[in-house]
Amino acid sequence: MAEPDIPEECLDGYAHLLAAASATGRRLTREELDSRRALGERAAEAGYGLRALVGAHLAATRAHWPASRTVSADSVLAAAEQAVDAFAEGYERAQRLAVRQEEAARREFIDDLLYGRSDLGLLAERAERFGLRLSYEHAVAVAEGPSGYEEGHAVPREVERALIGRFGGRSILLTTKDGRLVCVAPGDQDEVLTFFAKQAYAATDGGRVAIGRPQPGPGGVVQSYEEALNALDLAARLEIDEPVLRAADLLVYPVLTRDRQAMADLVVNTLGPLRQARGGAQPLIDTLAAYFDSGCVAAEAARRLALSVRALTYRLERIHRLTGANPSDPVHRYTLQTAVIGARLLDWPAKPF
């Protein structure tokens, strides 16, 4: 794209300044330098490129080179150097301010987008500036690692470079929120979030990624984002080791806890007797969790708990005696497993009801 012609206003007073300063070899005054900085700021705000502006100053220096033989070339070049340096300083100052304002606007938009705090119609208009069309479906992936990440951190930059290199200018928004990486993508482009999950897992050195379901409309991003956060929370509570979680695969857990009081009653009535065991209920609940997570294979459960199969079998028998429910009985197993899931979700017995 060709640079626009540089107007005379960007060089206002330059020829006179060059002649006056170079005639005596003096340095530019504070007022003269300030005038150059102000011109540089205005040129940046008008969108002119710095390369073209410097070229215009060099051309003006040649065109207005003092004709007097008493003026040395060093004086002319020194005056030109000071003027161009001040002009560039003002230009860069305006550029930095514009970047800070853009970053602030982007951060405000992201906060409103993920928390749904803005008027949805206005939010949709603002979204187009950042490459999103909120009238379509969108899905959100959230990645967390061993440490928090902010904008400009090496990890977000690495993931962003990979996404841009793979998908180019697609409607993708990558940002950070509360120390996590967040990727917003069109709902029909699951390959984007899958690739993001792979890159984020590697960049965070084995972190965890959750992907919300595609949701329509301006409020869909908030819903998908909250689903991803809830999936991360569930994974932590249930000690799920999967590196990539999909909210669609975890819908049973919100259903189980929708009636919190009913779930609490089930936990206490089913697992409450385990509190009578030596060491309390927690070791036996962990035993049940390992047993169910291993597909009710005693040898695998024992390995996960670093126990012998005999010790594991003794614990299962102890659970049977205390609760009256046999973990190996299919009829009892469902009740026990549901109660164990409820205990982990409600953090029982650490937090008694």
List the helices and strands and how they pair.
Blueprint: H1 14-24, H2 30-45, H3 50-63, H4 73-115, H5 120-129, E1 138-144, H6 154-167, E2 173-177, E3 180-186, H7 190-203, E4 208-211, H8 220-238, E5 244-246, H9 252-256, H10 260-271, H11 282-293, H12 298-305, H13 309-323, H14 330-345
Parallel strand pairs: 4-5
Antiparallel strand pairs: 1-3, 1-4, 2-3
What does this 3D model show about the protein?
The chain is an alpha+beta fold. Helix content is about 60%, strand content about 5%. It is built from 14 helices and 5 strands. It has helices spanning about 15-25, 30-45, 50-65, 75-115, 120-130, 155-165, 190-205, 220-240, 250-255, 260-270, 280-295, 300-305, 310-325, 330-345, and strands spanning about 140-145, 175, 180-185, 210, 245. Strand 4, helix 8 and strand 5 form a beta-alpha-beta unit. The mean pLDDT is about 90.
